[in-house]
Design a protein that fits this description.
252 residues, two-stranded antiparallel ribbon, globular, alpha/beta, nine-stranded mixed sheet
């Protein structure tokens, strides 16, 4: 293992990940989004902006009937994802597509074609370029800030293009971006289900998990929130069960 990488364990050691020693690393958002996958998920699944493969590999761990593609643009990060597929023995179930989501011809050539997937999972960058001070760590900056000219709306529309009719999009993002998320998918998605994530009891939500179905006209549902930490700062019982892989995020 390279000295620039560290080995981390997720879901109570069920999933192993090599991650960069410096820069962006998978954490709670990835665990929550993977746990929002339906309990009997199967079919064609893509993890968009996959990073080192955390979400896709966590889904693979409990969903042997799912066939998963990790879509990642950064060559160095994609290389780590490839190592993680092998580290977890998922070569027959999980594949890597190295391409830019927003360049449709490139991603199709890499194996991420339009209307090819039953499920799209994504943890998009949080901020548009020039709206925040990007990290000096290139990997962390790319994970948190869109490249110049790109934004959340473009990202979501490209994710929708990957979905088969009737397929489901699942996202985790900042709670204050919920309006933008709903507007971006308004014409092509329906049956939005919104799960607020609260850092502690009584605090405003700082994250949301959103699911939606392509082509649906069913109304939006707002679910009870998930509280991540108790008063002593430790994970709540519900959050700890999710972290261990013993429970899923209830998406209704």
């Amino acid at each position: 293992m390279s000295s620039d990488l560290i080995r981390t364990m997720l879901l109570d050691h069920k999933v192993q990940l090599l991650q960069p020693l410096r820069g962006n690393r998978a954490g709670t958002d990835a665990v929550l989004l993977a746990a929002a996958a339906p309990s009997q998920i199967a079919g064609a699944v893509i993890d968009v902006g996959a990073g080192v493969g955390s979400i896709g590999l966590m889904i693979a761990q409990r969903a042997p009937k799912a066939r998963i593609v990790l879509l990642e643009n950064d060559p160095a990060v994609a290389g780590i994802a490839r190592e993680n597929i092998a580290l977890n023995g998922r070569q027959e179930q999980v594949s890597l597509a190295e391409a830019d989501l927003l360049k449709s011809a490139a991603r199709r050539a890499a194996g991420a074609g339009d209307e090819a997937f039953d499920y799209v999972f994504t943890n998009p960058p949080f901020y548009a370029a020039h709206t925040v001070q990007a990290s000096r760590e290139v990997g962390r900056a790319a994970a948190h800030v869109f490249a110049d000219g790109a934004d959340l709306t473009q990202w979501i529309k490209a994710c929708i293009a990957l979905l088969k009719p009737g397929g489901r999009l699942l996202m985790v993002h900042r709670a204050d971006a919920l309006g933008d998320m709903l507007e971006a998918g308004r014409k092509q998605l329906g049956h939005f289900v919104v799960k607020p994530i609260h850092p502690r009891d009584g605090a405003p939500a700082n994250r949301v998990i959103v699911t939606a179905r392509k082509g649906s006209r069913a109304p939006l549902a707002l679910l009870p929130g998930l509280v991540m930490h108790s008063a002593d700062g430790k994970f709540s019982a519900a959050a700890e069960a999710i972290n261990r892989g013993e429970a899923l995020v209830d998406m209704g």
